[in-house]
Amino acid sequence: MPPSRxxxxxxxxxxxxxxxxxxxxxxxxxxxxxxxxxxFFFPSDFLLTHMVPGTALGVMIGDLVYTWMAYRLARRxxxxxxxxxxxxxxxxxxxxxxxxxxxxxxxxxxPMVAWQVGMATMVLMGLVKLVLSFFGxxxxxxVPQAGLLGSIAGVGVALLGFFPLAAVFRAPLVGMLALxxxxxxxxxxxxxxxxxxxxxxAVLAGTALYYAMGLGGALENFAPPAFDARLTVPWPTxxxxxxxxxxxxxxxxxxxxGVLTIVGGINVNESARVAGDEYxxxxxxxxxxxxxxxxxxxxxxxxxxxxxxxPAYKRMGxxxxxxxxxxxxxxxxxxxxxxxxxxxxxxxxxxxxxxxFIGQEIAAQAFEVVPRGHYRAVVLAxxxxxxxxxxxxxxxxxxxxxxxxxxxxxxAMLWGAFAAHLSDRRLLATAAFLGxxxxxxxxxxxxxxxxDGGLYVPWTAGNAxxxxxxxxxxxxxxxxxxxxxxxxxxxxxxxx
Length: 496
Prior knowledge:
Blueprint: H1 3-6, H2 12-36, H3 44-77, E1 86-88, H4 90-108, H5 111-132, H6 136-142, H7 145-170, H8 172-187, H9 198-215, H10 239-247, H11 251-275, H12 281-297, E2 304-306, H13 310-315, H14 321-336, H15 338-345, H16 348-369, H17 375-391, H18 399-405, H19 408-423, H20 427-442, H21 465-489
Antiparallel strand pairs: 1-2
Helix pairs in contact: 2-3, 2-4, 2-14, 2-15, 2-16, 3-12, 3-14, 4-5, 4-7, 5-10, 5-11, 5-12, 6-11, 7-8, 7-16, 7-17, 7-19, 8-9, 8-16, 9-16, 11-19, 17-18, 17-19, 19-20, 20-21
């Protein structure tokens, strides 16, 4: 068997490596930028020494396993195989930062407590993914795309859109230059000189302007980063156990993000199969689940997931060398301080436009993929994320907004599901999802009446709104059942 056809490296791996590596570093920059900026002011040194190494380890392990899978596939088929790309999941990286770690730190003023809760949330996410790895196809069949993609579209608009765009306007000259190049190259799909990659050029141009302005005295509080080479090995720790009790209150965050990366992994694996590389879906999903759990146990706070874009990497001519190189660079770079230096050196305003574009793409995809009749369901599914955005602003704690914003991802998914079934006049399925909403609201999994979004049993919540919310959903479910019976009597039929 010729080694040229089954080897790990090809020339196309070089471009693919820079694209995948930059994508991962962008997520780390955003994680640090969100937590260290207002309103959280999380200590940067703690982020670099405690959170980054374990997070990077998860990426390394996942990419190394995917590299081995591609090599094994090439050896079995005798054809070049492109590895599945893996990296940090953008929506959940932002979601865990703004919904879990940041609020816990504001409440406790103790970075260790916030880190432990973040680790525990990661472990919970990984366990959810581990279980769902065996049921991913069933979940995709059960929940309409309007619910799955609409909830992520809300994250794209509210979190990936708003927070990064705010970072752009904190340094508008830098941010708008990077945003302009990003939109020119990625949204308009116009070529740059030399066919250079648009995302990399946008980040590098913005970074160059940032340092030119900073060194020229045009930026306040500018200080170039210092490279602090120190070995920080992400050893396993039981610290997540100390944070588990508080992390259980954030199951409404952990469950939906785990579900969505599993479903996303199924879709990504299907795109790889169509492109010519057929991997076992269960192996792909179990790998991301194990990498997430390992990262959480070793101090990580951002989950890994297979990335969309395998066909693009295959068109670049990449094989498995790019995932091998990315995994080793991110993993060892996190341990030796290189990744921490780069994430400090890249200004958030220069990186944020790439996330703005990703948010656009995520929101647009929901409308491109779902049936036209489900557009309204997508919009409905986006609203809880916007409510959470409002809730995250200082002073925005009006009770109705609190209830609507808490558990926003799971709420969005369920709203999109029942609305899609309602649009299709599938009233029994509509009633089932409305009844599920009522049941979950009684325990705070959605619409928690507690300001911190915690869980409870309804008779101990101390708030009559719990019963009102659950009763409202159950009443709507009953109406849907009655309407289904009426439709059946008219001979129009119904189905689940």
